Amino acid sequence: xxxxxxxxxxxxxxxxxxxxxxxxxxxxxxxxxxxxxxxxxxxxxxxxxxxxxxxxxxxxxxxxxxxxxxxxxxxxxxxxxxxxxxxxxxxxxxxxxxxxxxxxxxxxxxxxxxxxxxxxxxxxxxxxxxxxxx
Length: 134
Hints:
134 residues; elongated; single chain; mainly alpha
């Protein structure tokens, strides 16, 4: 049986539930025997598996929606991907690469391989505006 340290359990708890464990969880963990700790650990692993599966489902839906929107704009007259992306972003104001990342993030796809590649692609498409100083 593996011995779990408190930091590792805290990390797993955060990954599974989105926040670090409260003091009562930590106290319960500290007072548990090895079998109970294993049961707690296994439960957190199951929760993490569910969270990751749901995140993957949401990500797939967001990618599908983005691809469909992009294709619709191509079909409506943009003609190609680059023009469609330019049309999609032309009403936005971009000052910095973080604004491009924000635009991709708002579509729920930033933390995907496709989203990261899209940010790189958009960096060559969007027009950046200079900060205005008084």
